[in-house]
Design a protein that fits this description.
about 525 residues, 15 helices, PyrdxlP-dep_Trfase, disordered N terminus, EC 1.4.4.2, alpha/beta, single chain, glycine dehydrogenase (decarboxylating) activity, 7-stranded mixed beta sheet, binds pyridoxal-5'-phosphate
Length: about 525
């Protein structure tokens, strides 16, 4: 069993006393090996008789040696996965301050709705006439998204924010191509504060990325955008509110400049949760924007899925929406999947198999309906209030750049306050783990040094915010008082100690290698 990194001694100030246990467990903090280490090839949780003609059918392809897969009996399998799950930190364990990620509570009502058999048990290949309710739900969700943004069309199928970016940028590319400018416009402007997915998306579909510097107040200067615009520019990708947690106050002037230059304005809507019910995106001059249902609309973040990143499009881009399109006909709602149908001649084709993440659509609409217009507006107001409260309560100890402007959904700190302590942003993040919190986003956005980006969301109570603030204040005071030990060895109390993150990223060990059999002592 691999116990590397466990059990090193904590500093005296927070001494972890007591002997090493025989099992590696620390009371309810249970150690768990890899399934390969604890499983035994001779054990299986199921016992299915091999069908008689099976071997004959495989002929020479039949396996001659055992597969060597680890076997566990049912209780062992159950315990293995439950123990692993307890090493996870999730939004149901505590405040999850990861900035830019909007880790908000996933209401159980949404889960209940998504589990209704009429939604959970349908199949995308069922005839449309048998899933009218599901189509109705997709139409209702679309209607809400269009109402909230003021935009013209929506594509529900993208499976994540980044996938939505791809969809929106492909629509922009198709629109330029339809104007005969596809080759001429090969540059996309991306501010340096952008999330990494923005330049990645632009590059993925063949655009050259031109960076726009941030001005000293953390926002984008329309003059810098104008200077970078030209007949070769296809689009600007701007996140608003941006990744410094600031509303781009010159967004309208920026959009006008972009349009005057014949380019389109892509708005990264990952932070829509800060302005939901307050700002109609269409009024800002946006041509395309993705909306992360797993952020603003409280659906769960999965490890890379199942997410949903619908894209809303302006009048100009609506004809370039991907299929399928949900169309109201005399016979009711129909998913139009074939190109060549009215309005779909210039469509991109499909962004994904089938019709999108139905389970996420149900959850997002449940959140919208249970909040109502006033509730959604209050959710964004509360998210902004929470972020400003955190910033105000920490600013005397931790340096907060751009604090002359109100924060939107997240509070940004840099590492100036750590000067002279011998500690870094990473040390603070690791010490926060010992306090029972997932660390905030660190070293992003890149426009400030040693960034610590905290997004509390509206779903935290004041008591929960106060405890988090108190923990961070305690850490800040300890750092300033020179208690380096508390930080440099952290985390002391996590299932694993501090890892070499560079090595883990550069040379990950992704394959378990069976240890050589131990030589028989008698030989
Ligand atoms: C500003 C911003 N843009 C885009 C994305 C990408 O969204 P997703 O993770 O859903 O692909 C994120 C995700 O954190 C983000 O914060």
């Amino acid at each position: 069993m691999n116990r590397e990194g466990r059990g090193a001694t904590a500093p005296h100030s927070i001494a972890l006393t007591g002997p090493q246990t025989f099992t590696g467990n620390r009371a309810l903090d249970l150690e768990e090996g890899l399934i390969f280490e604890i499983g035994r090839t001779e054990v299986t949780g199921v016992d299915i008789p091999e069908p008689a003609p099976f071997r004959d059918r495989l002929g020479t392809q039949a396996r001659t040696a055992p597969l060597d897969l680890p076997g566990l009996c049912e209780p062992e399998a159950m315990r293995h996965y439950v123990r692993l799950s307890r090493m996870n930190y999730g939004i149901d364990s505590g405040l999850f301050p990861l900035g830019s990620c909007t880790m908000k509570h996933n209401p159980r009502l949404n889960e209940k709705m998504a589990r209704l058999p009429g939604f959970a048990d349908i199949h995308p290949l069922q005839p449309q006439s048998t899933v009218k309710g599901a189509l109705g739900l997709m139409a209702e969700l679309s209607r809400y998204l269009l109402e909230l943004t003021g935009m013209q069309a929506v594509a529900l199928t993208p499976k994540a924010g980044a996938h939505g970016e791809l969809c929106g940028m492909m629509a922009i590319k198709a629109a330029h191509a339809a104007r005969g400018e596809g080759d001429a416009r090969h540059v996309v402007l991306v501010p340096e504060s952008a999330h990494g997915t923005n330049p990645a998306t632009a590059a993925l579909i063949g655009y050259q990325v031109r960076s726009i510097p941030a001005r000293p107040d953390g926002t984008v200067d329309p003059e810098a955008v104008k200077a970078a615009l030209g007949p070769e520019v296809a689009a600007l990708m701007l996140t608003n509110p941006n990744t410094c947690g600031l509303f781009e106050r010159d967004v309208v002037a920026i959009a006008e400049a972009v349009h005057e230059a014949g380019a389109y304005f892509y708005s990264d809507g990952a932070n829509f949760n800060a302005i939901l019910g307050k700002v109609r995106i269409a009024d800002l001059g946006v041509d395309a924007m993705h909306i992360n249902l797993h952020k603003t609309f409280s659906t769960p973040h999965g490890g890379g899925g199942p997410g949903a990143g619908p894209v809303v499009l302006s009048d100009a881009l609506a004809p370039f929406a991907p299929v399928p399109a949900l169309v109201a006909t005399a016979e009711g709602l129909v998913l139009v999947e074939d190109e060549g149908v009215d309005g779909a001649e210039q469509a991109l084709g499909r962004m994904s198999a089938f019709h999108g993440q139905m389970g996420m659509f149900v959850r997002a609409l449940a959140w919208m309906l249970s909040h109502g217009a006033d509730g959604m507006r209050q959710a964004s107001e509360d998210a902004v209030l929470s972020a400003n409260y955190i910033r105000a309560c920490l600013m005397d100890l931790m340096s907060a750049p751009f604090a002359e402007r109100p924060a939107m959904h997240e509070a940004l700190f840099d590492d100036t306050w750590l000067a002279g302590t011998g500690l870094t942003t990473l040390d603070v993040a690791k010490a926060l783990i010992d306090e029972g919190y997932h660390p905030m986003t660190v070293y992003f956005p890149l426009v400030v040094h040693g960034a610590m980006l905290i997004e509390p969301t509206e779903s935290e109570s004041k008591a929960s915010l106060d405890l988090f603030i108190a923990a961070l204040r305690d850490l800040a005071l300890a750092a300033k008082a020179g208690d380096k030990e508390r930080f440099l060895g952290a985390p002391y109390y996590a299932p694993r100690r501090r890892l070499d993150e560079t090595r883990a990223a550069r040379s990950p060990v992704l394959r378990w290698v069976k240890p050589a059999p131990v030589a028989d002592a008698a030989e």
